[in-house]
Amino acid sequence: MTKYHVFFVSTPAIGNLVPIVEFAHRLVHRDRRISATVLIITFSERPILNEYVRSRAASTKEIKFVHLPTEDPLSPDQYQSSLAYLSLFYEKHKSHVKHAITEQSELDAATDTVRIAGLFVDMFSTSMIDVANELGIPSYIFFASPASFLGLMLHLPILDTQLATELVDSETELIIPSFVNPLPHSVLPSIVLERKDAYSCDLVLAEELERGIKLLMDGDGEIGRKVKEMMEKSRMAVMENGSSYVSLGSLIDKLTANN
């Protein structure tokens, strides 16, 4: 029986890594022919990230975690924004990702029953698609944010034109296809408003996030009720014949058909 090996590269942040690992977990449990390797970009200054990897590696045998070689940190004079930092950061790790996949591919080839089925990246590590292209394997983008945010990103070229011409200091509300209601331009991310190569990254403490969720869920208000309804819909979606269950099956069919 032919088996299939998929690789994952995530931005080294807990909010990016956890969803992609959970997705890998669902993938391998849905189809036992599939094995998964998560390539870890190590950040010594992020102990919570490293602890999460250690914990998951100890609790699962279906997913393999491979730590890539560390690179010297970038000096501040090499970049002017978080976005530029990430771009240079991933560029330095491309060779490590390529080596890890190539090495595993050679091991898989020895069995003559395992095929490399694809490389999954997240929204910030899309430059790794170059590695997949070099190796001749399919690449996929795993997008953990809500569909509304994906719609905003896809709409950015149009927004950029509007902001450059007619909406500077304007009270005009924006029509964005993925949002039900129009949005005032003041609520857009700063990267869009400033129209510069920069992100303003705010760190949200896990304790504060957990406290906020509990406050919403423990109450009897409208928000808590809707969140609970959404939780039930999400639960149904991943059960057999649910929308996410069916979509995952379609992805598996595509992964295996490529090989």
CATH topology of the largest domain: Rossmann fold
Q: How many DSSP E strands?
A: 7
Number of structural domains:
2
SS-derived structural category: alpha/beta
Task: Note the main sheet.
Answer: 5 strands, parallel
Distance between the termini: 13 Å
Query: What Rg is obtained from the alpha carbons, in whole angstroms?
Result: 21 Å
Treating each run of at least 4 consecutive H or I residues as one helix, how many helices? 10
What's the level 1 CATH class of the largest domain?
Answer: Alpha Beta
GO molecular function, one term: UDP-glucosyltransferase activity
InterPro entries: UDP-glycosyltransf_plant (IPR050481)
Describe, in short, the structure shown:
By secondary structure, this protein is of the alpha/beta class. The chain contains ten helices and seven strands. Mean pLDDT is about 75; it is low at about 195-215.
Provide a descriptive summary of the structure in words.
The protein contains ten helices and seven strands. The chain has 259 residues and is an alpha/beta fold. The chain folds into two domains: 3-144, Glycogen Phosphorylase B (Rossmann fold); 148-218, no CATH class. Helix 3 (82-111) runs parallel beside helix 4 (129-135). The strands form two sheets. It has a five-stranded parallel sheet with strand order 3-2-1-4-5. It has a two-stranded antiparallel sheet with strand order 6-7. The protein has helices at residues 14-30, 47-59, 82-111, 129-135, 147-154, 156-165, 190-194, 206-218, 222-237, 243-257, and strands at residues 3-9, 34-40, 63-67, 114-121, 139-141, 173-174, 183-184. The chain starts with a strand and ends with a helix. 52% of the residues lie in helices and 13% in strands. The model is unreliable at 197-213 (pLDDT under 50).
